[in-house]
Write a structure and sequence with these properties.
alpha+beta, 9 helices
Amino acid sequence: MDSRWYNILLFLGSIFFLFFLFENKINKGIKVSQEIIDAPLAPPPTKDIVKEITGKEVNKDNLLERKIAGIVASFAETPQGKDFLRGLIQPVNPINELENNFLDVELPKSIIEYKIIEIGSVKTSKCGDKLDIIDLDNNSSKVITLGLNEFHNLDPIIGLMSIGETREISLMSKKFKIKLNKIIHEVKREKSLHFFMNKPTNRIACGRKVVIDTALKDFNNEKIYHYSEVNKKPLIINVNNKDLPTFILDPLIAGGIGNKVSIILDNKKLSEAKKYFNFLSNITLKNSEVFSLEIVSLAYME
């Protein structure tokens, strides 16, 4: 056989193998995500347990608080669950705690290595912020929105830099030396009622593309809609504030890959989510005061 044809067949065979491997991985991921989403919640904690954890009486007349307590009951005996239950009476946003856990971010394989040339301040940017960065190789500045990959797809690592920090970044084909000069505009972070996840894990980097499965449940843990069951495939989303509202974006980033994130939404926030998730617009919603939008991130799309 001509060596040219042999090389062509070898190349096509490699492409087919990689496609099969990825498809098989996603299908297994969907099956696992369905099992995670279908997992039942524990019975609601008793009044005494909640009082012991929160130091507060549960107001029986407040339906919203009682329903949230039921949704998060499965976490009642874990440290994370106790932290969550402390905020039952006056909901808080746990994002601030998660930002300080120093967990790693998994970077794309295209970024071979990086090193810090100059240390900056302690302040860092968040996904969606408008930044001024300096390309030190060309002595030029550029304004970018973090997450939209407007500078050589380096947002996953730019998002880790502090103000004034300089890094040298090596890709497969090129090196860059960049400085995060300043934050021009900080995006207002909208908050859900609460969010929680199954386990601490590495965060998802802003600007990456991920494969997810998602389901919507009412406060009785009854499924209203499950994406992969209806569409027979997962959903692919871009991790940025253009494609996701911040009250979904921030929990998604904190949740990482292979983890279930439950985002507690009221009717107003669910209506806002419909603008980004078109499939929610076709759902007939039950009469509920609070919903749980559950997301399982299955894999990265490089």
